[in-house]
Structure formats: C-alpha cells, structure tokens
Design brief:
Blueprint: H1 6-22, H2 28-35, H3 41-53, E1 57-58, E2 67-68, H4 70-81, H5 88-97, H6 105-120, E3 123-128, E4 136-145, E5 148-155, E6 160-166, H7 173-187, H8 192-203, H9 212-228, E7 232-236, H10 250-262, H11 264-271, E8 280-283, E9 295-304, E10 307-317, H12 322-341
Antiparallel strand pairs: 1-2, 3-7, 3-10, 4-5, 5-6, 8-9, 9-10
Length: 342
C-alpha cells in the first residue's frame, strides 16, 4: 500500500472520527468547514479520491460523502490510532462497577460482560474458562416436579453449575440424600475430567445394574459433568445493538443475534485471542464468520496466575470507537486477572 503523508493521515483520521460519531458519510466540505485544516474543499476531495483508490474509503452514492471501509478501519487501528490508555478517572469508573466482594469467579466474569456493555454501549462478551480442571467440592440433587430433578455442581473455586435432568421414575427424599451422599463421597477432590472418567468407568460395572441408587447417582452426575465441561459464552447488552444504524436492517440484526445465541462460532473466534497477550481486533470479514461480517470485535485474554483461562470483549458495528474500546477491553481484562489472583 502506498505510504500516506501527514496531510492524508490527518484527513483520514478526521473522517473516521466524524463517521464514528455520526454514522453518516462525510463530505470534503464538512471536513473543510469543521476542522480548520487550512485546505480547500478541492484539495480535500483529491485526498479523499486517493484514499478511495487505495481501498480505505468508499462512496455509497456518487453525490454522497465517503465512509471508511473495513480496510480503512484496519489501517486506522494499526497505523493512526497508536497505543491509547484510559485516564485514571476512566479506570476508576470501571473499577467501581465491580462488586468489591464477589462471591466467586463466575460473579467477576459476569460482571465484566455487564460493565463492558455499559461502557461501550454495545454487547459485552465473556468466554468462561473450560472446567475440566475444576476441582469437585459438592453436588446435590433436588426434586423439582414430576419427572424433573435439579442437579447442582459446586467447584472449589466457588463456581456453581445447575442442570435440570429428566427422570422417568419417582424418588423419595431419602433416595435423593443417598444419591447426593454417594456423589460427594465418590468424587470429592477429583478434577471434573477425572470425575467424569470415573463415572463412565463405574457405570460399566456389573454391580450398577443391581443397585438403583448407585446407578442413578452415576448417570445423573455424568450428565452434569458433560454439561459443565465445555466453554461457555456469556453475553450482556445485545439489545443495545438494535440502536446502531448499521443494524436497522432486520435481516442483518437477526443474523448477528442468531450468532450470539448459537455461540459456538463466537466462542471459537474469541478463543483465538488466547494465542496472544495483546488485545485482538477483528474488523468485518477478518473474523471469517459471515454472520458478523458487519461487526467489529475487540477481545483480550484474562488470566488466573500465569495461565490464560478465557477471553472477554465487546462486539458492535465496525463503526465503533476503537480509540476508547480497545483500552477499555485491555484494562478490564487486566483488572479481572488481578481480581482472580485473590
């Protein structure tokens, strides 16, 4: 790509800033009037034409102003934006949003998605860590109604997972106590991975066929372990996307909402950020996921100790304020990591 001189960079930066603020095409006359560059509209038009030829800008209509392309936003993020940090006041605002005494890791992570949505005015995302290495602390089964049982799994780090299990038999309260007691004895101190392996092995033994309580305990616990072990995406603020002009087209909005609901591809995309200790930015088609090709996604990994255990971030239109959202996501990830140290 041709190297841009300072004048070109200034005009590109101003146009992108204006477009981020208004979501409307920006004309040469607007730049000349509002920003006092000392350049004529004709000179600015020539620069905009050059930027368009380079693929950094697009012109929706012949008589309209220009808008940044995904390539233009990428150039802006990589070349113009540089390294931004939040002010101390902005950091304090984010810090104060967190509960000073969170009950467990899940509370911290759920709070982070809410706070990211609040600060960015888009949707906040958190990929919860895989739970295979979670250490078993407690399990309990409770009757809900005919044919339904609530299974509760608690790990040593305070994470809690619930699962509604369909059953086709009636059980008494003593039965539930025996099943819970068996699980707490059999799996105590095991990692989730080891507990799942143990349940599979025990279920294959002959004696399980002749002991209804042990059989139910193993089968129900295995169902909970299978449900807990994968990565989980937690999203807050997706309704805020509805107010972005880019998503006024109902089909585009439905496509993004469906991607957030389905989750697997978004989890895979965000997990790519764990390969880097830096903030990752996906703009438009860079995500290689058609459902979010009209979006920008900013993510960062968070740690427990020295180990990266998950990612968090923000999803919004490609026209997001990267100068603010990138340092916000970066600071939040570092803050969450420090909270998980305690």
């Amino acid at each position: 790509m041709e190297k841009l001189i300072k004048r070109d960079l200034d005009i590109l930066s101003l146009l992108i800033s204006k477009y981020i603020a208004t979501a409307a095409p920006v004309s040469s006359g607007c730049i000349a009037e509002e920003f006092g560059l000392g350049l004529s509209p004709a000179t600015i038009r020539n620069v905009l034409a050059k930027l368009g030829d380079m693929g950094l800008l697009a012109q929706p209509h012949t008589s309209a102003g220009r808008i940044p392309t995904a390539v233009g936003f990428r150039y802006y993020v990589n070349t113009i934006l540089g390294h931004h940090e939040l002010s101390k006041d902005e950091e304090t605002v984010i810090t104060k949003q967190f509960d000073l005494h969170p009950a467990n890791m899940q509370d911290i992570l759920r709070s982070s998605s809410r706070i990211l949505s609040l600060i960015s005015n888009y949707a906040g995302l958190v990929v919860m860590p895989k739970s295979e290495q979670a250490i078993f602390k407690h399990m309990e089964f409770l009757p809900l109604s005919t044919g339904k049982v609530l299974g509760i799994f608690v790990s040593r780090d305070g994470s809690v997972h619930n699962r509604i299990i369909d059953v086709n038999e009636d059980y008494s309260y003593p039965d539930f106590e025996k099943i819970s007691s068996y699980c707490n004895s059999a799996y105590y101190g095991c990692s989730l991975e080891d507990a799942c392996r143990k349940a599979e092995k025990e279920l294959a033994l002959e004696r399980v066929r002749y002991d209804k309580i042990i059989g139910r305990a193993l089968a129900w616990s295995k169902e909970i372990f299978d449900n807990v072990s994968g990565e989980e995406l937690f999203v807050q603020g997706e309704e805020k996307l509805m107010s972005a002009p880019e998503f006024s087209d109902i089909e585009t909005l439905k496509q993004v909402m469906a991607a957030l609901e389905e989750k697997n591809q978004i989890v895979h995309l965000l997990s790519r950020a764990t390969q880097s200790s830096e903030v990752s930015v996906f703009i438009g088609s860079e995500s290689n996921y058609e459902a979010v090709e009209n979006c920008g996604i900013v993510t960062a990994s968070y740690k427990k100790g020295k180990e990266i255990i998950g990612t968090l971030g923000v999803i919004g239109p490609t026209r997001m304020d990267y100068s603010h959202i990138i340092p916000t996501v970066d600071f939040t990830a570092k803050l969450v990591s420090s909270m998980l140290e305690v």
